Protein backbone atom coordinates (compact mmCIF):
# COMPACT_ATOMS: atom_id res chain seq x y z
CA UNK A 1 0.00 0.00 0.00
CA UNK A 2 1.35 3.41 -0.96
CA UNK A 3 0.86 5.69 2.03
CA UNK A 4 2.39 8.62 0.18
CA UNK A 5 -0.98 9.17 -1.51
CA UNK A 6 -2.59 10.18 1.76
CA UNK A 7 -2.60 13.79 2.79
CA UNK A 8 -0.72 14.43 6.05
CA UNK A 9 -3.34 16.96 7.02
CA UNK A 10 -5.89 14.18 7.44
CA UNK A 11 -4.00 12.81 10.45
CA UNK A 12 -2.22 15.91 11.75
CA UNK A 13 -5.10 16.94 13.98
CA UNK A 14 -5.68 13.47 15.44
CA UNK A 15 -5.03 13.19 19.15
CA UNK A 16 -2.50 10.36 18.64
CA UNK A 17 -0.36 12.62 16.45
CA UNK A 18 -0.05 15.38 19.05
CA UNK A 19 2.75 15.85 21.55
CA UNK A 20 2.34 16.43 25.28
CA UNK A 21 2.18 20.21 24.99
CA UNK A 22 -0.46 20.07 22.26
CA UNK A 23 -2.52 17.50 24.15
CA UNK A 24 -2.39 19.57 27.33
CA UNK A 25 -3.32 22.79 25.53
CA UNK A 26 -6.17 21.20 23.59
CA UNK A 27 -7.47 19.44 26.72
CA UNK A 28 -7.66 22.79 28.53
CA UNK A 29 -9.45 24.35 25.55
CA UNK A 30 -11.97 21.51 25.41
CA UNK A 31 -12.58 21.75 29.15
CA UNK A 32 -13.25 25.49 28.86
CA UNK A 33 -15.58 24.85 25.94
CA UNK A 34 -17.45 22.25 28.00
CA UNK A 35 -17.80 24.62 30.96
CA UNK A 36 -19.17 27.37 28.70
CA UNK A 37 -21.77 25.04 27.22
CA UNK A 38 -22.92 24.03 30.70
CA UNK A 39 -23.19 27.69 31.69
CA UNK A 40 -25.31 28.36 28.60
CA UNK A 41 -27.64 25.54 29.64
CA UNK A 42 -28.53 27.03 33.04
CA UNK A 43 -30.29 30.25 31.90
CA UNK A 44 -32.27 28.32 29.27
CA UNK A 45 -33.73 26.09 31.95
CA UNK A 46 -34.35 28.89 34.43
CA UNK A 47 -36.02 31.16 31.87
CA UNK A 48 -38.69 28.54 31.20
CA UNK A 49 -39.38 27.57 34.79
CA UNK A 50 -38.79 30.65 36.93
CA UNK A 51 -40.89 33.74 36.30
CA UNK A 52 -40.40 36.58 38.75
CA UNK A 53 -42.76 39.50 39.18
CA UNK A 54 -40.93 42.65 38.05
CA UNK A 55 -42.41 44.83 40.79
CA UNK A 56 -41.47 42.34 43.49
CA UNK A 57 -37.99 41.96 42.01
CA UNK A 58 -37.53 45.75 42.11
CA UNK A 59 -38.64 45.94 45.75
CA UNK A 60 -36.34 43.11 46.78
CA UNK A 61 -33.38 44.74 45.03
CA UNK A 62 -34.08 48.06 46.74
CA UNK A 63 -34.29 46.36 50.12
CA UNK A 64 -31.02 44.50 49.51
CA UNK A 65 -29.22 47.66 48.38
CA UNK A 66 -30.54 49.56 51.38
CA UNK A 67 -29.47 46.90 53.83
CA UNK A 68 -26.28 45.79 52.10
CA UNK A 69 -24.00 44.23 54.73
CA UNK A 70 -20.90 42.04 54.77
CA UNK A 71 -21.54 40.04 57.93
CA UNK A 72 -22.89 36.54 57.22
CA UNK A 73 -25.21 36.55 60.27
CA UNK A 74 -26.84 39.81 59.22
CA UNK A 75 -27.18 38.46 55.70
CA UNK A 76 -29.13 35.49 57.02
CA UNK A 77 -31.40 37.83 58.95
CA UNK A 78 -31.91 39.91 55.81
CA UNK A 79 -32.80 36.83 53.77
CA UNK A 80 -35.31 35.77 56.42
CA UNK A 81 -36.81 39.26 56.35
CA UNK A 82 -37.20 39.08 52.59
CA UNK A 83 -38.97 35.74 52.86
CA UNK A 84 -41.42 37.13 55.42
CA UNK A 85 -42.11 40.34 53.48
CA UNK A 86 -42.42 38.63 50.10
CA UNK A 87 -44.02 35.24 50.74
CA UNK A 88 -44.16 32.65 47.96
CA UNK A 89 -47.57 32.42 46.37
CA UNK A 90 -49.55 29.20 46.61
CA UNK A 91 -49.75 28.20 42.94
CA UNK A 92 -52.37 25.51 43.51
CA UNK A 93 -54.80 27.90 45.16
CA UNK A 94 -54.38 30.42 42.34
CA UNK A 95 -54.86 27.70 39.72
CA UNK A 96 -58.11 26.50 41.30
CA UNK A 97 -59.66 29.96 40.98
CA UNK A 98 -59.43 29.83 37.18
CA UNK A 99 -62.12 28.54 34.87
CA UNK A 100 -61.75 25.30 32.91
CA UNK A 101 -60.74 26.98 29.65
CA UNK A 102 -57.88 28.89 31.26
CA UNK A 103 -56.75 25.77 33.11
CA UNK A 104 -56.51 23.86 29.84
CA UNK A 105 -54.65 26.75 28.21
CA UNK A 106 -52.17 26.93 31.10
CA UNK A 107 -51.58 23.19 31.08
CA UNK A 108 -51.04 23.14 27.32
CA UNK A 109 -48.63 26.05 27.63
CA UNK A 110 -46.77 24.25 30.42
CA UNK A 111 -46.46 21.08 28.33
CA UNK A 112 -45.19 23.09 25.37
CA UNK A 113 -42.61 24.84 27.54
CA UNK A 114 -41.50 21.53 29.01
CA UNK A 115 -41.07 20.01 25.54
CA UNK A 116 -39.15 23.04 24.30
CA UNK A 117 -36.91 22.96 27.34
CA UNK A 118 -36.28 19.23 26.94
CA UNK A 119 -35.39 19.74 23.28
CA UNK A 120 -32.95 22.51 24.20
CA UNK A 121 -31.40 20.38 26.93
CA UNK A 122 -31.07 17.37 24.62
CA UNK A 123 -29.43 19.53 21.95
CA UNK A 124 -26.99 21.00 24.45
CA UNK A 125 -26.22 17.59 25.96
CA UNK A 126 -25.35 16.26 22.50
CA UNK A 127 -22.83 19.09 22.12
CA UNK A 128 -21.43 18.41 25.60
CA UNK A 129 -21.13 14.68 24.81
CA UNK A 130 -19.15 15.48 21.66
CA UNK A 131 -16.76 17.65 23.64
CA UNK A 132 -16.46 14.95 26.32
CA UNK A 133 -15.66 12.39 23.62
CA UNK A 134 -12.67 14.38 22.37
CA UNK A 135 -11.65 15.53 25.85
CA UNK A 136 -11.47 11.98 27.21
CA UNK A 137 -9.42 10.77 24.25
CA UNK A 138 -6.99 13.66 24.57
CA UNK A 139 -6.47 12.81 28.23
CA UNK A 140 -6.06 9.12 27.38
CA UNK A 141 -3.34 9.89 24.84
CA UNK A 142 -1.63 12.24 27.31
CA UNK A 143 -1.39 9.46 29.90
CA UNK A 144 -0.53 6.83 27.27
CA UNK A 145 2.72 8.63 26.46
CA UNK A 146 3.81 7.95 30.05
CA UNK A 147 2.25 4.54 30.61
CA UNK A 148 3.89 2.92 27.56
CA UNK A 149 7.33 4.08 28.69
CA UNK A 150 6.63 3.01 32.24
CA UNK A 151 5.46 -0.40 31.00
CA UNK A 152 8.89 -0.99 29.43
CA UNK A 153 10.42 -0.08 32.79
CA UNK A 154 8.13 -2.55 34.57
CA UNK A 155 8.84 -5.40 32.17
CA UNK A 156 12.55 -4.83 32.68
CA UNK A 157 12.06 -5.54 36.38
CA UNK A 158 9.97 -8.59 35.51
CA UNK A 159 12.20 -9.86 32.70
CA UNK A 160 15.52 -9.49 34.53
CA UNK A 161 14.61 -11.94 37.32
CA UNK A 162 13.15 -14.35 34.78
CA UNK A 163 16.37 -14.02 32.83
CA UNK A 164 18.21 -15.09 35.94
CA UNK A 165 16.05 -18.21 36.06
CA UNK A 166 16.82 -19.00 32.44
CA UNK A 167 20.56 -18.51 33.04
CA UNK A 168 20.48 -21.04 35.88
CA UNK A 169 18.77 -23.63 33.71
CA UNK A 170 15.20 -24.22 32.85
CA UNK A 171 13.64 -22.50 29.86
CA UNK A 172 10.07 -23.72 29.56
CA UNK A 173 8.54 -22.34 32.76
CA UNK A 174 10.16 -18.85 32.55
CA UNK A 175 8.88 -18.44 28.98
CA UNK A 176 5.38 -19.48 30.03
CA UNK A 177 5.48 -17.06 32.98
CA UNK A 178 6.72 -14.22 30.75
CA UNK A 179 3.92 -14.78 28.26
CA UNK A 180 1.37 -14.94 31.08
CA UNK A 181 2.60 -11.63 32.50
CA UNK A 182 2.27 -9.98 29.10
CA UNK A 183 -1.22 -11.40 28.61
CA UNK A 184 -2.25 -10.16 32.06
CA UNK A 185 -0.84 -6.71 31.26
CA UNK A 186 -2.65 -6.62 27.90
CA UNK A 187 -5.99 -7.68 29.41
CA UNK A 188 -5.80 -5.16 32.26
CA UNK A 189 -4.66 -2.38 29.93
CA UNK A 190 -7.48 -3.11 27.47
CA UNK A 191 -10.00 -3.19 30.29
CA UNK A 192 -8.76 0.13 31.69
CA UNK A 193 -8.72 1.75 28.24
CA UNK A 194 -12.29 0.67 27.55
CA UNK A 195 -13.46 1.89 30.97
CA UNK A 196 -11.82 5.27 30.30
CA UNK A 197 -13.30 5.64 26.81
CA UNK A 198 -16.77 4.82 28.12
CA UNK A 199 -16.23 7.36 30.95
CA UNK A 200 -16.78 4.71 33.61
CA UNK A 201 -13.39 5.60 35.11
CA UNK A 202 -11.36 8.78 34.77
CA UNK A 203 -8.61 8.48 32.13
CA UNK A 204 -5.73 8.48 34.59
CA UNK A 205 -7.19 5.53 36.50
CA UNK A 206 -7.89 3.40 33.44
CA UNK A 207 -4.54 4.09 31.80
CA UNK A 208 -2.41 3.48 34.89
CA UNK A 209 -4.30 0.42 36.16
CA UNK A 210 -2.07 -2.16 34.46
CA UNK A 211 1.09 -0.42 35.67
CA UNK A 212 -0.18 -0.23 39.24
CA UNK A 213 -0.95 -3.96 39.19
CA UNK A 214 2.32 -5.18 37.65
CA UNK A 215 4.83 -2.78 39.20
CA UNK A 216 4.72 -4.41 42.68
CA UNK A 217 5.18 -7.81 41.01
CA UNK A 218 8.27 -6.54 39.19
CA UNK A 219 9.70 -5.13 42.42
CA UNK A 220 8.98 -8.41 44.22
CA UNK A 221 10.67 -10.55 41.53
CA UNK A 222 13.68 -8.22 41.39
CA UNK A 223 14.07 -8.37 45.16
CA UNK A 224 13.87 -12.17 45.14
CA UNK A 225 16.45 -12.38 42.36
CA UNK A 226 18.80 -9.97 44.15
CA UNK A 227 18.63 -12.01 47.35
CA UNK A 228 19.02 -15.28 45.41
CA UNK A 229 15.76 -16.53 46.84
CA UNK A 230 14.72 -20.12 46.30
CA UNK A 231 11.62 -18.97 44.46
CA UNK A 232 13.83 -17.97 41.54
CA UNK A 233 16.51 -20.61 41.86
CA UNK A 234 15.62 -23.88 40.21
CA UNK A 235 18.75 -25.49 41.72
CA UNK A 236 17.82 -24.53 45.29
CA UNK A 237 16.97 -27.36 47.62
TrEMBL record:
<protein>
    <submittedName>
        <fullName>Putative permease</fullName>
    </submittedName>
</protein>
<keyword id="KW-0812">Transmembrane</keyword>
<keyword id="KW-1133">Transmembrane helix</keyword>
<dbReference type="GO" id="GO:0043190">
    <property type="term" value="C:ATP-binding cassette (ABC) transporter complex"/>
</dbReference>
<dbReference type="GO" id="GO:0015920">
    <property type="term" value="P:lipopolysaccharide transport"/>
</dbReference>
<keyword id="KW-1003">Cell membrane</keyword>
<feature type="transmembrane region" description="Helical">
    <location>
        <begin position="171"/>
        <end position="188"/>
    </location>
</feature>
<feature type="transmembrane region" description="Helical">
    <location>
        <begin position="200"/>
        <end position="223"/>
    </location>
</feature>
<dbReference type="InterPro" id="IPR005495">
    <property type="entry name" value="LptG/LptF_permease"/>
</dbReference>
<dbReference type="Pfam" id="PF03739">
    <property type="entry name" value="LptF_LptG"/>
</dbReference>
<keyword id="KW-0472">Membrane</keyword>
<feature type="transmembrane region" description="Helical">
    <location>
        <begin position="146"/>
        <end position="165"/>
    </location>
</feature>
Amino acid sequence: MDFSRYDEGLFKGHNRMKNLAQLGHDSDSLQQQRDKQIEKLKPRIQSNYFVQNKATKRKIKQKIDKNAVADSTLKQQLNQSLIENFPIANIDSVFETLDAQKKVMILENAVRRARDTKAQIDEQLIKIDKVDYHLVRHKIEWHRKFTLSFACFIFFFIGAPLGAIIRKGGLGMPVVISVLFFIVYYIIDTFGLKASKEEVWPPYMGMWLSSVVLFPIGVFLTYKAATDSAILNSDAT
